[in-house]
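Slide 14.
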Amino acid sequence: MRKISKKIVIPGALIIGAMGLAGGIVLASDGPKQSKSGVPEASSVADPIEFSDETKLRQKLLQVALGKLPADLVIKGPRILNVFSGQWDDAQDIVISSGRIAWVGPTGKWAGKTARTFDAAGLSAVPGFGESHKHIESTQLSPEYEAALVIP
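Slide 15: predicted structure.
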């Protein structure tokens, strides 16, 4: 099992046992600080955890999908082929951020803002075609990269 190399200081806690996280967590003994919820809080991070660029992008796409960050482009009104049902969904919007699709749904239902729109009413959109039968486990990818492939 690979040990985590980042260290997090949590006051008042004991060092965790030898499995997995033990080598990656340093805990202080100066007494715990309690949050309003009663859960001890970390006082400092010795080595801040740096997320990969892909993880940062996915976090941004989630914020765009929720309407909390603006999109780069909204394609308004095409009918979209739903490859799961085999049906066409009329009057949909496709929200784009950083060259990726962040949200798809009925026209006018996305809560965010954008500076650019493209009127695609009367046009059709289909997803990119790719092999949908995959054996992710045999790729021997790390969990982070496997999740990047599997989680939309």
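Speaker note: The domain at 53-150 is CATH 2.30.40.10 (Urease, subunit C; domain 1).
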